[in-house]
Each structure stands twice: as C-alpha cells, then as structure tokens.
Design a protein that fits this description.
Layout: E1 13-17, H1 22-33, E2 37-42, H2 47-57, E3 62-65, H3 71-85, E4 90-93, H4 108-136, E5 139-144, H5 148-151, H6 157-177, E6 182-189, H7 195-200, H8 204-213, H9 226-233, E7 244-247
Parallel strand pairs: 1-2, 1-4, 2-3, 4-5, 5-6, 6-7
Helix pairs in contact: 1-9, 3-4, 4-6
C-alpha cells in the first residue's frame, strides 16, 4: 500500500510507543518513508526490525528498549530521542494491551497494570513532549484508542475503560494546548488483523461476524492505520484537533 507524501513530515522528529510490532511497526515504516526521524520504544528487542526498516526505507529508526509502565524510563526514552533527533514534534501513543479478563477476576494489581499501560503511559508521554512542542510553536499528538468502548464490548472492561479515558484526555489536552499550536487527536481502529490478533483471538466465525458489522467488507490490516496517522501528523490536518476518528471500516459512527 502506497501513501501520499507530506513534505512537512520530512526530517520531523517523531516518537512512537510500541513501534516495533503490529500497528506500531506499520506506523514506524510509514513515517520512515516520509523521511521523518523516527524513534520508538518497545519492551521486546527490535534490533532486527530496525535493520529491516533501514534496508527497506534507507532511513534507520532509533529503537529504545523500554517498559512504558515505568514512567521514569518512558520519560528518559523521550529525552534520549529528542537528543538524537531534535525536539519531538509528532508523538503517537500506540502501545496498549487488550488482555482479556472478567470483571470478577480483576484485582488491584491487574487494575493498576492495565490502566498504566493503556492510559497512564499515554498521559505522561504527552506531558513529556509538550514543553518542546510549545517552544517550537506547535506539534501534534495522536492517541491510538479503539472502537471497543464505543461498541460496549464485553470481555475486557478495563481496556474499554482506558479507551474511553483516552478520548476524554485527548479532548482536554487539545483545548489546553491549542493556543500553543499543539493539536491532539485520537484514532479508534476497528479490528485490525495484526499477528497477535490472529494468533490469539481471530476465528473464522468471529471474523465473519465482525465483517457483517463493517460497511466495508474487507479485513483491516495494520497498514490501513498509517494514512490516518500521517494525515493527523501533517499540516494537512491543521484545522483538526480534539477529534476522534474511527478507522474501522464503518462499524461505529461519530458525530
């Protein structure tokens, strides 16, 4: 899948959480092909992926191994990325974990873990990049959410709770930092066929049922999220902030 070129993204300093696998890997490649300077974090070693991206795009990303549930480590990774590539002007909060769970089984430790990885890390990444964006006269933040909470899905109530929180946070930060030229938006993917989803939860019956709910009857791939993110990161969307865009093939509607 090819994407249009956004000239203002060339040489932009971009930071992505969870940028070495799934949707995040597609976003890393998408920004690299724009000529951006990309740094990303992940919990697992991504050295092979970095080499692969350099070969494919002639643009080597900076990988910083980091557990985003460790706020100080996440902040340090953002500082390291800024030192290498210049102040971050485009942040994509992408890392998340939709581990299935029943309400009755949730204890405080699982609550804290789920909220930390799915919401708290988003907030503190935003907080960490905002001073430099304000100094630069602007920047853009894209928070990856999910349509799960909009559908009222069962099976992972803490995940949907965090997703709803992402939307609220996005709108408040957009209002707070809009005067500084910082735009903050969210994207809610539908059921994207990452390898993790295929390995753990995709069955022919479940997929058929979900496709029945989509207006567009084709499976969504990680690459389908790249265009919306690049658009929101570029000046082409300079009038758009505080919004949630559902990139889901038409399962839910907004407005």
């Amino acid at each position: 899948m090819s994407h249009p070129i956004f000239p203002d993204l060339k040489s932009a300093s971009v930071f992505i959480t969870g940028g070495g696998s799934g949707i995040g890997a597609a976003l890393t490649e998408g920004f690299l092909r724009q000529g951006a300077k990309v740094a990303f974090v992940g919990q697992s070693d991504a050295s092979a992926f970095v080499d692969q991206m350099e070969t494919a795009t002639d643009n080597r990303p900076l990988f910083i191994q980091c557990d985003i549930t460790d706020t100080s480590a996440l902040q340090a990774a953002i500082d390291k990325a800024a030192a290498a590539h210049g102040p971050i002007t485009a942040l994509t909060n992408n890392a998340a974990n939709d581990k299935r769970h029943a309400t009755e089984e949730v204890d405080e430790a699982f609550w804290e873990w789920s909220m930390t990885i799915n919401l708290k890390a988003y907030f503190f990444a935003c907080q960490a990049v905002l001073p430099a964006m304000k100094s630069a006269g602007g920047g853009t933040i894209i928070n990856m959410s999910s349509i799960s909470y909009m559908m009222g899905n069962a099976g992972y109530p803490l995940y949907t709770t965090a997703n709803a929180g992402i939307t609220g946070m996005t709108r408040s930060l957009a209002r707070e930092f809009g005067p500084d030229g910082v735009r903050v938006n969210a994207i809610a993917p539908g059921w994207v066929m990452t390898q993790k989803q295929k390995d753990m939860w995709v069955t022919p019956e479940a997929l058929a049922g979900h496709l029945d709910r989509q207006c567009v009857k084709t499976e969504l791939e990680p690459e389908d999220m790249v265009g919306p993110v690049l658009f929101l990161a570029s000046n082409m969307s300079r009038a758009i902030t505080g919004q949630l865009i559902a990139a889901d093939g038409g399962v839910v509607v907004t407005g």
